[in-house]
Amino acid sequence: MKKVIALTSVIFALSLAFPEKLSVTDEEQERGLEQFDDEFDSLFDAGDEGDIEVEQSDATAHSDEKNAQVVVAVDPYKIPLRFTGHLDSNLGFFGTRNEATEAEGASTKPSAYFDLSNYLYFMSRIDKTIAVRGTLQAHFPPGSTNLMTLNELYMDYLMFDRIYLTAGKKGTTWGYTRLFSGEDAYRMYSDTSYDRLSEAEKEAMRQTMEAQGFLFTNIVADSSNGASALLRIPFEAGIVSGGTLSGMVLYHGAASEPQFDDLIFAGSLEFTVFHQAFNFFGRKDPKVTLGTGMDFLSYTVGAETKRTVFGSDVYFQAIGKRSAEGKLPGKYVFTGGIYKWWDEKDPGFGFNVELQDTYNKDLGVSAYRMYADVGLKRLGKSKSMKFAMQWQHTIKAQDASDKEGFVTLAFVKSGLFPHADWTNAISMRYAPNNNGYHKNPYQMRLGSTVTIAIDY
To answer: I need a surface site. Which of 68, 154, 315, 435 has the fewest CB within 10 A?
Structure first.
């Protein structure tokens, strides 16, 4: 117990030394096409095998290996700390063409950019029952994000050799959807790179989209915004395999003793029967007071299923959210998708397509959206090239003519320089006039960038 207290003291000191938010200017900086590699890399990752894998605690992977560790002495105890890191830097240029609108004429703007991000990961294990992990990110230039951020700081704790507790600041993902998951689904609604927006700008965009009915397919997408505690209990019974019962508590405030009504509660039950995966989940948000003076509790419930058919992952999800008038669902979201990757021969080829139907009963607004990724890898004699296409498109929003979206084509060459990828890409965004999301409804962007990535 004294070792645990000493370790907690060290981690708490680190969290004070590197606070989550620093004072920076909240300016919007366009970063061009630099995020293309990150967006397309997820397509080239291998898909799941169809069955649910119980998420195990890192504390169960205890090892006596002493390599790459630093011993922090807190007399009379010694705490092993292991450090790893990742650095990536982008240098490039792009040209942006904005088509003419009623308010202003067409314009072409050349731009250049540079950025550097470094992630420092640290981990400590006292024994097989407890592990503490953290991630410290530094980004330059900061733009509207923080120069230095403590992205994660949490512990994994194993109880009775089968119950897993994760507590602290950590992002959690629930659900089988790959594209309409979390904040990536909102990238098309920004005039600049979404991950460069300030939190206030992101929140304003989320509220605008939710008013139309859009919801995150990951109901705990905001878990990294504050403190959370996740309890997982794996189980198997009869024909049920790979089951996990999960419960989560989230808190986004700053009080050291939060009220019960300020907490967010979420739960999930997932299992597999005859190779068919199922997941049932729900969430209760904090109590809010409406303009009428009435208290309102928001509930979100959902279910999803996934199965591998002829080597392809096929999945479907349905979510409903209680409206301000007490209706359930006041908003609903249906999302279905298919993911397939052929990797046996060169070149590797894969695609991921999702369709989403949303409806806001209060406003009587429905929308249909499509998100598709297509990729080729190991092209050329040296197998060092890859090609990717990404397309987001709103088939129907408030009316049949309210179509918008963007298309991106990217070609990546690896190996020109050590640890470097050279990306050339073209992106076109289209939207109706006066839709309220973009400064310019029609925009084309052509760019080239060199990305240097190093793991250490």
So the answer is: 68
User: For residue 402, what are its two tokens?
Assistant: 């309210």
DSSP, collapsed to helix, strand or coil, labels residue 445 as strand
Can you read off the two tokens belonging to residue 156?
A: 């994994």
Backbone torsion region of residue 220, taken as left when φ is above 0, otherwise alpha when ψ lies between -120 and 50, otherwise beta: alpha
d(CA 369, CA 346) in angstroms, rounded, equals 32
**pTM, entire model:** 0.74
Phi then psi for residue 386, to 5 deg, are -145, 155
Q: Give me the torsion for CA of 237, 240, 244, 245, rounded to 10°.
A: -70
> Is the CB of residue 126 less than 8 Å from the CB of residue 7?
yes
Give the pLDDT confidence of 402-418 residue by residue, as tens digits: 677 889 999 999 988 88
Q: pLDDT by residue (tens digit) across 255-268?
A: 777 777 788 999 99
DSSP 205-268: HHHHHHHTT---SSTTTTGGGSEEEEEEEEEEETTEEEEEEEEEEEE-S--SS--GGG-EEEEE
Q: State how far the Cα of 305 lies from the Cα of 418, in Å rounded to an integer.
A: 43
* Beta strand extents in 361-439 (DSSP E only): 365-379, 385-396, 404-414, 420-430
Measured CA to CA, the distance from residue 281 to residue 315 in angstroms comes to 16
Three-state DSSP class for residue 374 = strand
Position with higher pLDDT, 385 vs 17 = 385
| Exposure string for 170-180, b = 16+ CB within 10 A, e = fewer | bbbebbbbbbb
Report the C-alpha gap between 141 and 293 in whole angstroms.
44
